[in-house]
Each structure stands twice: as C-alpha cells, then as structure tokens.
Specification:
alpha/beta, Rossmann fold, eight-stranded mixed sheet, two-stranded antiparallel ribbon, 10 strands
C-alpha cells in the first residue's frame, strides 16, 4: 500500500520557504496514499509558473507543457488512457489568464480529471505581477497606483457554467484540504478546486493570519446540488470565505461519450493498418 513518501522525488525544490505550495503538495500526497493510488497510476499535468513546478517534485508520471495549456493536454491524455488518474496543477495566472479559455471548455466537455488551482492572486514566478484574481487596489511594481480591474471569481464562473464539481480549499488547513482533494479525485467528471495559497514573497496582505481569520468550513446543511445556494456561497469574500464543496452535478464524462473507448483504452487497442491507410488516402 502506498504511503505519502511513495510520491517523494529527490529533485531540489525552489519554492520560497513558507510558500503555500508545500501545504498543497503534502495534502495531495496524503490524499493519494489514502486512496491507495500508486505513482504509476497518476499523471500530473502542468503549464508554467511556480505552482506548475509541482510535478517536478512528485514521483509519478508528469507532463509539463506550455503556459495555460495544461487542460487540453490532460484531456488528450485521459482520452488515450482513461484508466489513468489525471490531475492538472497550476497557478491562478497560468490557469485563469493564459488558460482561461481552456478552463471554460474543460467545464463544457467534462473530462474525468481533477483541476487544482493554487490561487495566491499574483504571478509568483515572474515576481509579483497581479493575476486575474488580484483584488482591486492591490499595489505591485507594475501597478504602483493599485490594480483597477475587477477580480475574477473562478468559483462563481464554474458554477454558472454547470461544472460537475466545484470546491475551495486552503493551503493552511492541510487535513481539510486532503479530504476535499479525496472528494475531488473520487468524483466522476471535471472536478475543480480553487485552493487559497498565501504568497509569502509578493503578497504581504493575504497572509496565513489574514486567511485564518476569515476562512470557515461550509456547514453540512449546505446542499451542493442547489445551484443558487452554491452561487450565493461563491459570492462570499472578505469578512468570511467558505471552504468545502460548493456545487456538484452528475453529468456524463467526456470519455463515456466516446464510443471507441468502450473497447478499452486507446493504447490497448490494435491499430487497423489497412483502415488507417484508406483513411489517409482520402486526404491525398
């Protein structure tokens, strides 16, 4: 049976000391171990950024691609071998800015993958520029008078588009985050977790103390199948920030709708070379 240490990789880690990424990584290792997932069963896909270095520091299958392009790569991998547990990891800049269009279409397609977004409201790798979730008025080196754009609410966006699983976690509460990740990994369909993560280097407002005074677990009485109740929760930000599963909806997965996958994974199916040749000849 795998343990948390089963996913350890000896690659030197370059995250800043105290970075919330460490808490997210620990929670995922523990969640995978609790679910009895072995490293060879896991594929972690990422784009570019500090959070996107995540698969470098995990012992499992890994695919590191272009900025904002992790979701289409992960969808393709899941189609080719739908027996893999596919996890996409990235930051709020990578996933909501460069990758914002792919986020919307992943919701629409509903592949059976888990999308973990490290949301620290800044671009950490390129030294603190504002991301789409950055609050208005936040001062950076390139916005000395403060950010003027309205921040994106990714939770509300996902619920409005009927994502099949929407949740929010916090890097500073590892036990709660681990259980939330287990729920997301067990869900059939596109499971999305926005994970609040303090950036200790470039955002000195949203510290661990700041979050600790505001985050709270969603009451068990909340019905995650009630879209309007979920949307109302998604609008909470400031004095109180809810953590947990906000919304769920049962939907067929992208793989279930592909008839060819009923014969098994694509990688296990024999290639019909004459049929392939005939198909190619149609384009000549």
């Amino acid at each position: 049976m795998p343990s948390r240490n089963s996913y350890d990789n000896q690659v030197p880690n370059t995250w800043c000391p105290g970075c919330g990424n460490f808490g997210i990584q620990k929670a995922l290792k523990e969640a995978l171990a609790d679910l009895n997932k072995s490293p060879h069963q896991i594929l972690i896909v990422s784009g570019i950024g500090q959070a996107a270095k995540f698969p470098h520091y995990m012992r499992c299958n890994a695919l590191n691609g272009l900025h904002g392009r992790s979701l289409p790569m992960a969808t393709a991998a899941k189609i080719v071998n739908h027996e893999l547990t596919v996890i996409v990891v990235g930051g709020d800049g990578d996933c909501y800015a460069e990758g914002g269009n792919h986020f919307i279409h992943a919701i629409r397609r509903n592949p059976d993958i888990t999308f973990l977004v490290h949301n620290n409201q800044v671009y950490g790798l390129t030294r603190g520029q504002p991301s789409p979730t950055c609050e208005r008025g936040f001062v950076t080196k390139v916005q000395p008078h403060g950010v003027v754009a309205t921040p994106l609410n990714p939770i509300a966006l996902a619920i409005s588009q009927d994502a099949s699983f929407v949740g929010r976690g916090y890097a500073g509460d590892g036990e709660h985050l681990k259980e939330l990740m287990k729920d997301a990994l067990l869900h059939r369909g596109f499971s999305f977790l926005d994970i609040l993560q303090p950036c200790v280097s470039f955002d000195h407002k949203h510290s661990y103390n700041w979050y600790q005074e505001r985050v709270y677990p969603i009451d068990p009485s909340h019905d995650p199948h009630d879209k309007y109740a979920a949307y109302k929760k998604a609008e909470e930000w400031g004095a109180k920030i809810p953590l947990g599963v906000l919304y769920k909806k049962a939907k067929p997965t992208f793989e279930e709708l592909q008839g060819v996958l009923k014969k098994g994974t694509l990688i296990s199916q024999k290639i019909d070379h004459p049929a392939l040749t005939r198909a190619l000849e149609e384009f000549i």
